[in-house]
Structure formats: C-alpha cells, structure tokens
Amino acid sequence: MTSVNAQTTLQAPAQGRSTGFGWFAVLFLIAAQVTAIVISPPDRDMGDLQKIMYVHFPVALNTFTCFFVVLLFSVRFLWQRREQDDLLAASAAEVGTIMTGLTLALGMLWGRPAWGVWWVWDPRLTSTLVLFLIFAGYLALREFVEDPERRGVWSAAVGILGALNVPIVYMSVRWWRTLHQVQSSPSTVDPSYVIGIRLNLTAVLLLTIFLIWRRYEAALTERAAEHVLQTAALGGANA
Amino acid sequence: MAFRDEWARARAVAWKDLTTERRSKAGFNSVAALAVTILVLFGFALGPDTEAARAAAPGALWLSALFAGVLAFNRSYQVELDGGALEPLLLYPGARRSLFAGKLMANFVFVALLMAIVIVVSLVLFHVAVPAAWPMLLLVVLFGTIGLVTLGTFYAAMASRSRAREVLLPLLLFPMLVPVLLAAMQATKAILDGDIMHEAGAWISLLVAFDLIFLIATFFTFDYVIEA
To answer: Do A134 and B175 touch (CB under 8 A)?
Structure first.
C-alpha cells in the first residue's frame, strides 16, 4: 500500500495569520453591499427585490471557486499524496456546500415573490440542488471513514467525479426542461447594477478565500494534534 | 498480449462472482422480489387511473431497478469482505482495472436480468403496450444499465468498506446518477409514446456519451480507490 508521505509531520499553522485578512474581507463585503444598494435605482419590474441579487449572484458564482479548488487539490492529492492537499480540498468542499445551500435559499426567497413559487424545475436550480446533494455525500463519506489515507483517496475520487458531473447534470436537466430564462450579461443591465455586482463578486470571493483558509487552518491544527498524540502513544519513538 | 491477459482476468472475476451468486440464489431472488414490490407500491401511489399509470411507467421502471439494484452493488464486495478474500484478490498480479471490469460485468448481468423481470412486470401492471420500436427500447435498457452499473460498482468499492454502507452508497450514488436516469427515463418515455417528436435517438446518444465519460473516469480512479 502506498502511504501518505510520513516524513512531513504536519505543523499546526501560526496563530492568527488569517484573521487580518478575514476582517478585511468582511469590511469589504459590508462596504460593497452598502455601495450597491445605495447607488442602484429600484428595478423597473422587481423594485427593491432586485437587491437580493447582490448576495445571491456573487455567492452562486463563487461556489464554482470552491468546487474548482476541490477538483484541483483532489487531483494533486492523488498524484503527490500530501495530506495538506486533502485537507484543503475538504475545506473547500465544506465551504462550497454551505454556499450552495445559501444560493438555493436566497434564490427561493427571491423566486417566491418574483415567480410566485418557491421552486421551479429550471436547469440551473435543479443542477445546483444536485450539486449540493453530491457534495453532501462527499462530506458524509469523510465522516464515515476514519483512516486518514483512505479518507483522502476516497474523497478525492468522489470529489473529482462530482466536479466532473456538474456540467453533465446541467446539460441533461437543460435538455429535459428547456424553459430556462436567458442569462443577464453586463451589456443588458444598467451600469449602476454592474458596479454593484462586480464589487460584491470581489467581496464574496475574498470572503470565500478567507473561509477556506480558516477552515484549512482548523483542519491542519486538528491533524497536527492527532500526530502529536500518535507519536506520544508510540512512546515518542519518532520524537 | 496485455489486453488479452486483462480480459482473461476480468472474465475470471466476473465468472467467480456470478458462480457465487448462482449457487446461493438467495441474493438475486430477494432483490427481484423487492423490485416487484417497489413496482406494486408505485402502482398504489399513482392510483387506479390507467392513463396516469401508463404515463408514469418509465419513471417507475427505472426507479425500481435503481432501488433494487443498489443492493446488488454492495453485495458484490460484501461477499469477499466477509470471507476476507478481497486482500488476497488484490495480491494477484495484473492491473486493478481488470478486477473492476470483472465486477462490472458480473453486476451488469445481475442488473440486466433484474431489468428483464422489471420490464415484463411493469408492462402488465402499468398497462403498457409493447411499442413497435422495441429494439430501440432494448438499446435504452442496455445503455441505461451500463451507466447504472458503472457508477454503482465504483461507489460500492468505497461504501461497502465504510462504517455506514447502507446509507452511504445511495447518498453518493443517486445524485451522481441523475443524468443517466434522466436520459434513460426520457428515452423510454419517448419510445413508449411512439417517438412522435423523434427525440428518443438524441436521448440515447446522450446516454451513450454519459456512459463513456463515466466508464473512462471510473476506470482511471478505481486503482486508487481499491488500494486505499
């Protein structure tokens, strides 16, 4: 059996390196939200309901950031077997799952007044829900497997196949239901909306990076503690 | 030469799995009985309306095959795990993917037989007339079963060796199977409706594309999964 590189003992991360960045991300998000809400006029059809787009759209788009990180570091883990890569992929999957859930919840809050229903079987909605379920399975798998090496390899495989399945699910649902609405682009909306959207896209991206980073540090600390306990249990033979 | 060796190994694994299954029989019989039970329950859920039953037949057919088939996938590793035979099997020389191919073939035969029973029973229960284009329906069953079995055999390699295999396999497998099931159900529906819109062919091509993508992806990752 090939084993996780045992020479590199995991080091707990230095305390509080991510905190400053986190504060910056949160303050940036608040500023971006305020700016977007103040400068954009109420939408002709939706009125102030449109304002939910400044959270919904950036969060939805940044779920792809998360799942791209999962794909990237899952592949790298299978290739190089560094435990850090597995922990980073898992952190991104956790943040991504939460953000997918948030995307769905915000979309439903908007859909109820705008469409009159909480849910429609639209390709984008449906594939987002399936994506959420796939990564809920990924997180469940990690819970049910104890051996770190096995957990790493298996969740990398599930992560890679899950990420691969995202466009496939979208395509199949799109063929099944062709009543999706046309996607808006910067050229079809008022410039004041575009600024608000772009500001908030950046803000949520920063927040996403912070959350993944923070979760990764926590996972690293946890594993480093386990390493210390293991070494102690072996009579400090490796110390 | 190498391919012929792998093919021989895969056949040996499939033969071993099918022989075990044939000698015990209990596995297949109970899974088939479960599939029929699920079909009957679908019938109750849909009510006595003939038209509604006929319209829902493709969905009921594929879902009962899925719910019953999922039991087969874990079983195909469980027998070996119980006997402590998986590790010795991995010690044999040769590529791991021939082991996967063998299990895939055995599971394919298992689910294909199950599908034969499910189709006949749902034709009767849901008042479906055998369509003129029945060879096309067989194609849908063939490719749908391949997709189902590929992902099922792959995820069972993990789920069967985890702590919560009963819940973990469906949780991992069902969302991943959405594209395959959707394509299979739509193709079946189109063919049963006489394929007026000429969309069955497109759904079948899509199904073949999904099968190929998942076959390639699982063959590449199985080596890692089975060794861990």
So the answer is: yes
Min Cα separation A152/chain B (Å): 9
Evaluate whether A103 touches A59 at the Cβ level (below 8 Å).
yes
Cβ of A156 within 8 Å of Cβ of B224? The answer is yes
pLDDT digits over A140-179, tens only? Answer: 999 999 888 999 999 999 999 998 888 888 888 877 775 4
- Tally of domains within chain A: 1
Classify A43 as helix, strand or coil: strand
Both tokens of residue B117? 């029973």
Instruction: Give the C-alpha separation, A130 to A170, whole Å.
Output: 9
Determine, yes or no, domain membership for A14.
no
* Residue A81 belongs to some domain of the structure: yes
A9: left (phi over 0), alpha (psi -120 to 50) or beta: beta
Q: How far apart are CA A9 and CA B26, in angstroms?
A: 50
How far is the C-alpha of A40 from the C-alpha of A200, rounded, in Å?
A: 13
- B91 reaches A (C-beta below 8 A): no
Q: Residue B31 and residue B33: Cα distance in Å, rounded?
A: 5
Q: How far is CA A165 from CA A60, A63, B6, B27, B214, in A?
A: 17, 15, 28, 31, 9
**A212 lies in a domain?**
yes
Per the CB < 8 Å rule, is B162 touching A141? yes
Phi, psi torsion values for B177, nearest 5 degrees = -85, -5
Report if residue A1 sits inside a domain: no
pLDDT of A208-232, one tens digit each?
999 999 999 999 998 888 888 888 8
pTM of the shown model: 0.87
Tell me the two tokens of residue B221: 């990752």
Interface contacts A/B by beta carbons within 8 Å: 86
Residue indicated by tokens 């749908």: B144
User: First vs last Cα of chain A: how many Å apart?
Assistant: 25
Q: Which residues form the domain of A69?
A: 19-39+49-179+191-229
